[in-house]
Structures are given as structure tokens and as C-alpha cells.
Amino acid sequence: MAAKPKSESMHARQQARPDARSTRQSGQTGGRKAGGPIHVTRPLLPPLEQFLPYLEEIWESGWLTNAGPFHQKLEKALSEYLGVQHLSLFTNGTIALVTALQCLRITGQVITTPYSFVATSHALLWNGIEPVFVDIDAATCNLDPERIEAAITPRTTAILPVHCYGNPCDVDRIQKIADTYGLKVIYDAAHAFGVAHKGMSLLNFGDLSVLSFHATKAFNTFEGGAIVCPDAKTKQRIDYLKNFGFADEVTVVAPGINGKMNEVQAAFGLLQLQHIDASLLRRREIDQRYRAQLRDVDGIRCLPLPADTTPNCSYFPILVEREYPITRDELYQVMRQAGVFARRYFFPLITDFPMYRGLASAAPDLLPTARRVSSGILCLPIYPTLSRDEVDRIVDLIKGAGPSALLGDLRLE
Ligand code: T4K
Question: Which residues fall within 8 angstroms of residue 61, CB to CB, at 6 or more apart?
Fold first, then answer.
């Protein structure tokens, strides 16, 4: 069937969805109705009308995936925006992690953190690698460099730290340990889009860095991810690995996977890039508003902003401490009942899940700091369309959530 002219097909879509006009004109709604529940995050969604020309281009070209033109443009644009040498796009961050480990031929044991999203250590298991968990530093929630050396064995081949909430790991000390013992360093940088540290992109530290562009991340392509690497040879190998190992039409050089980002995702990434600076700025304002208003609340502690760093404010974690009148879990419930869906990132610890808890390094007494932080952490909503009034409402809830608020809630149940 012949393609309809652009204007006609656009008109047909508007007829089919009577609400389409208001959605397209509302700008960055993040899909949330005013007065509705407040989630921990909402995706950055540019106005829909801005995305339609990209879709039309894809429809016209019939090129949907396999390193198409939008894929190539986004790799270039992101490398420039982030200030990195090479970047290979992926269908999601988890497959990117699995592939990063394959790329460097990591085997045996890898030192990692129990305080992360479970995908970090799942990527090791998918490669037949044993995670060796090491406790975190309470100030950063990242792998404690003081404890890494004691966990190294003859089977250790790499360190897989996480820049948790986008807060930089102690990259210099980790590199020094890696150099001393001949280990690779792969950073799980899922939270670290756009973070600068010591005057350059945080993604430039280590052998590889892995990003996530999931809907819940500061920069999203619905699902998506990337591996950042320092040289063209490594990028070539990553590109083979994400395309089944094909080097050309008849040559397969490795048991690769299908990790390719498709053209719709890549096109959305290009559009999103136009809005990212405004979005990161807004996140910064929200971060500052929370910090200013929570400063004097007994028992609530905000994590300090890291030194020598431009943060991305992708999360706003608070620690609910003993002096606070109710527990973290009680506060979490009080907030939920008020329609505010804060999240306990990261609770439970990875080491509490059945596929990990039998490991020697998962023993609870070896991970006291991770356990303490995990039982007190609460990530408050933060996303560009969160209004000042909503931030104030969340702060009021925290300030007013004593035992009486809790009793009231329990009576309602
Ligand atoms: N490494 C680290 C350190 C990670 O944090 C992650 C992912 C990965 C690796 C793996 O990267 P990917 O393979 O995912 O690219 C979410 C995300 O699903 C996950 O990507 C993320 N980390 C993790 C920290 O958070 P959930 O289970 O909390 O997501 P969910 O569905 O409960 O969403 C949270 C809130 O976000 C919802 O209450 C509302 C909002 N939301 C969510 C989605 C999916 C939206 O508004 N729209 C949406 O489309 O895991």
C-alpha cells in the first residue's frame, strides 16, 4: 500500500486518539495527572509532537534496527555530550553489563558491592563468575576501597563497583588496587549519566563503564544502555559481541548476544538529548530544595554532595536514623498512604537473595555498613516535572510523620 502523505497520516492519528492533541501540547508531562500519586521517578518525555517526525523517518526508510542511522547518530551525539572517546549502544543496561564482562574475558571471581540493583551481580552469574561481596562506605554508599584488598584471591580477575546514585566511587584508589594486582575495573555506571568528576566525565575511569537508559533513569530511551570504552579496538569487539559475534556476513568471531538498540529507541534518545540539560538543571533545583528543607529535621540525613563532582541528581536518598520518631519502613508506609511512592533503593541487599546468600562473602556480619544503610535508606521522588509544591508536600509529610500519623494510618487499615 502506498504511504499516505505526512499531513494526512497525522490527521488520521488525531482522529483515532481524540486526546492526542492535549497530550502533545502539554509538553513534558511525564505522563502524570495533576493531583495523582507521586512516584519515585517519572520518565523525561519530551512533547509527543516532537517525536513524530523521527517516527515518520523510520517508517519511510524501513530501517528499524541493526546499527541504523539513528543508532549511529546517537552514538556520536552521546560520545560528544558525555565527553567520552567511544560508546556502544545497547538494548538495556543489563545486557551491556553481561557483554562488558565478556568483552574483557572476565572469569573466576569478581569483587562487587551488595548495595545495588540486582542486575549488577546477576551479570556476573550470567557469565559463570562468582561475585565476592565487599562492604560499602557509609558516606558514599559505594564499595569501600579499604576492604577490597582483603577480598582478593588468586581467582580474582576484576572489580565491578557501582557509582551508586551517581556518586563517584573512589576511582583513584580502586585503580591503584587494580594496577597492583593486575585486575580489570568495570564500573556499573547505570546511575551516572552526565556526572563529571575531577574535571572530566566519570565514565572515563576504569577499563569500561556501563550505563542504563531505562525509563527510570535521568536519560532514557524507554529501555536502553551503553558501554563506554577508551579505544576503537575495544568498541569494535563490543559491537561484534552485541551482534551475535558477526564481524561480516559470513564471519562469527565470538559467541555474541543480541544486545542491539533499535531505531525507535535511538531516535528517542536523540530527541531526549535536546531536553537533557534543562532536565538536569531542574533535578538540581529539587535536590537543593529538599536539602534546604530537610536540614533541620531530627533523624533525617541527606547524603552529602560528593566533592569535585558535577552530580546528575538522579536520586534523592535520605537516611532515616534512630532519632527520627518512626522507622524507615513506617515512614515508607505513611508516605504510601498519602500517595507518595518513595522507594527503598537498595533494600533488601543483593546478598539476601537466594542465589547469593549461600556465598561466604554474603555473610551478614561481613557487611555491617551495607546492612545499616539498607535498613535506613529511602529514595524520595525526584524528576523534572515534580513541582515545588509537591516537594514541599513530601517534606511536610516527613516533618509530620510521628507515631500519631502512623496510628492514624493503622486505624484506617
Ligand atoms: N545497575 C544498576 C545499578 C541499576 O540501578 C540498574 C537498573 C541496572 C544495572 C540495570 O539496568 P537496566 O537493565 O534496567 O537498563 C527500576 C528499574 O527497572 C531499573 O532499571 C533500575 N536499575 C532500578 C534502580 O529501578 P524498579 O523495579 O524499581 O522499577 P519500577 O517499575 O518499580 O519503577 C519505579 C517507578 O518509576 C514507578 O513506581 C513509576 C516510575 N516509572 C517506571 C516505569 C518503568 C514510570 O513512571 N514509567 C515507567 O515506564 O526498577
Answer: 68, 69
